[in-house]
Prior knowledge:
Layout: H1 29-35, E1 43-47, E2 50-54, E3 61-64, E4 75-76, H2 79-88, H3 108-119, E5 124-127, H4 134-144, E6 153-157, H5 163-174, E7 175-176, E8 180-181, H6 184-192, E9 197-201, H7 207-216, E10 221-226, E11 240-243, H8 249-260, H9 266-279, H10 283-301, H11 303-308, H12 310-313, H13 325-329, H14 332-337, H15 341-352, E12 356-357, H16 363-368, H17 375-381, E13 385-388, E14 391-394, H18 398-404, H19 411-426, H20 433-438, H21 440-453, H22 457-476, H23 480-497, H24 500-516, H25 520-536, H26 540-557, E15 568-572, E16 585-590, E17 601-608, H27 612-616, E18 633-636, E19 639-642, E20 780-781, E21 794-795
Parallel strand pairs: 1-8, 5-10, 5-11, 6-9, 9-10
Antiparallel strand pairs: 1-2, 2-3, 4-7, 12-14, 13-14, 15-17, 16-17, 18-19, 20-21
Helix pairs in contact: 1-19, 3-4, 5-6, 5-7, 8-9, 8-10, 15-17, 15-19, 19-21, 19-22, 21-22, 21-23, 22-23, 23-24, 24-25, 24-26, 25-26
Amino acid sequence: MDNDSFGEGGFGDGGSFGNGAARPPRDAVTPAVKAAPAHARTVKVVSGDFLLTVNPVDGSEIEPCPPGEQPARPARRTAAERVERQRAALPPVPPGPASPRLPLLERGEERERLVRLLGQGRSVRLTGPAGSGRSTLLDAVAEDCADLAPDGVIRLNGHHRTPGELLQELFTIVFSAPGHRPDRNALAGFVRDIGAVVVLDDLEFGGAALDELLDAAPECAFLLATTPDVPAPSADSPLEEVFLGGLGRATALELLSHIVERPLTEDESNWAGDLWFESEGLPLRFVQAGGLLRQGDELRGDPEAVDEFAAFDAAQGRDVPLPTLGEGAAPAPLLASRLSESARQTLRIAVALGGEVPHQAHLPALVGDTHADAALGELMGCGLLSPVGTRYRLAAGVLAQLREKGYDKDSVAHAHTAAQHYAWWSGHPSVTPERAIAESDAVLAALGALVSGGRDAGHAGAAVRLARSAAPVFATGLHWTAWEKALRAGSEAARIAGEVAEDAYFHHELGVLALCTGNLERARAELEASIGMRGALADKRGTVAGRRALALVADRASGPTPKPEAPTIRTETPAQPVFPLSGLTAKTSKLPRTGPEDGPATLVTTTEPPSRRGLALLGARRNVVAAGAGALLAVVLGTVVTLGAASDKDEAPTDNVKNGQQTDGDDFTEDWDTPQDPADDGSQKPDDKGATKSPTSSAVPGTSTAPYAPGAPGETPSSTPSQPGSPSETAQSPRPTPTRSTPNPPSTPPKPSSPSTGTPTSEPPPTETTSPAPPPAGGETSASGPSAPESSSAPVM
């Protein structure tokens, strides 16, 4: 079959194939699917910071989006592009003669009030019963508000839609981002900048969910149409309430006269008056009543039609009586009985699908009549259908009325026929994801009908094939809700049919979807179930795909990977030391200063992520011994961290650690000990309290003239002042019995942060030292560190 012969949605005009051949009957569709299956389509899309490769065979693959695959920032559509997109989203015009457009009667006051409130930037909730003409009023208000907002008027439909889906549709209409679905945070940023009049029909939620929708788009004015049974907004909601009731008696009779296109007779006026009282003036009832009167006019003018409907005119010959009040109150069965067979069959299929009417291009294949697409016009003309977004549904109350008359007989068989057709259609290469999403409600209705109403293995198998065919297309079209519903219905159908391999596929896809939405616990459970099933089936490729996704879940559960950041410019005083945190590598350079009048020095600090082994050693080596003044300060990512002194029973490290050198797990021993200054060969002597004394006993605080250079963990600064930008580096080696010699006193006193007293003496073998407590938060610390006297302390500057 030539793929180029298909028009939009895979069908040509007039319900026939592009080469002119008539469409095969519906029974011939399923064998064609088995004989020539379509090739699997692998598509890459971006969801948040993930790159999703939709694979219909082994399961979708997900990975962090590489830099080269990251999409560009979404561009805002022009006004002409928005208008064209919304025009394409309107329901298709039924074939046949165009029906006259009915006037908007007795709604002028409500119309003016809605336009005025929206012009003031206020949001309105329009509440009215089903059939009160809310959609017609919204169309009129949308035309009046076309130039009120920068982004114009945006039409949305809330039937079976959540706040998240509506926000995603709002983003898609205003911004152009093909193949890209931003995550929740990014989506909130884009939607916050949209300024439009949002006309939302068939809203199905209220309360906190409605508050979430309104808060997400603060620059938009919403016109929300809903029914009284929908939950009310929260008490502090800024919505204005407008109630829409029925028409007056005179207005209802005027509407009926417009529909039949002639004046009403006295009997018809009396009958319409009784109907107005019973229906409380709902416009939909009078549209359907007009359909009954027009059918009666057609029957009176066609003798053959009178013979066909002899049950209605046997008593009065060719004079067709008026419907009874009961038939006027529930007119769907009588209206349907006077329609063509294709129209009645379409109604049976719609009842089987829970009220969803397939697109007119699908009706020839589903009904088995090449001209069945004309049935849509018949149903619309008598008020049995209502537009819902890009499609049609049975009008309010029609589904229940038809079920009472037996139109739900063989509903599972009709749903099975629809599932077979949609499985072939959705998997065809010519079907775009946008077209499949527009038909998603009918597809999901067919799946639900087979899973809930047909426990037969044949029906369950058809549901599995439909879910396998439609779910990847929904994923490619970035319609997460439809994707999830198709996967869950397919998993249930696979369990009923005993198809373990298919059930494993559905669990894998559910895990990938949960990962895309950030639900890590659900993703782990679904992927583990899929891996277990595929392992039992020895499906190596599927198992590998599942383990890759599960590894990504584990990686996300452990926390986000630190990303390299640009150097952070910080201003520090030259006397303040900078120490790297254990497990992190800090690279520090000090800018030269020309004199004290130049102000504080500027440090450029960058941090690198720690190695895995270095992180593992953090728990055992949380405290690092640093020399000088007993005050330990660290700057990591621009934050000054005060570190404690050495832990109990510290020993010298076995390897060398230099300032600015990256710490690795192999460079650490089990314990740390106080390092030794290379400038003096002497050692430190513990006092009677277990603390050690510094060999620089004659230092005077506050008279240092050289800037202080920080040392690495395990280093003691040299007694000789270091030059700016050249921190001293000390090589360490463990010695069982250290000796000491008396060093030369420094030419200038050390900084206030390095006080030291005491007389250097010979030192016995190392003994256990007592670690001082961490310094208080107020910026002062005890000076009983490695280089402090036992009875003195100095504040940290």
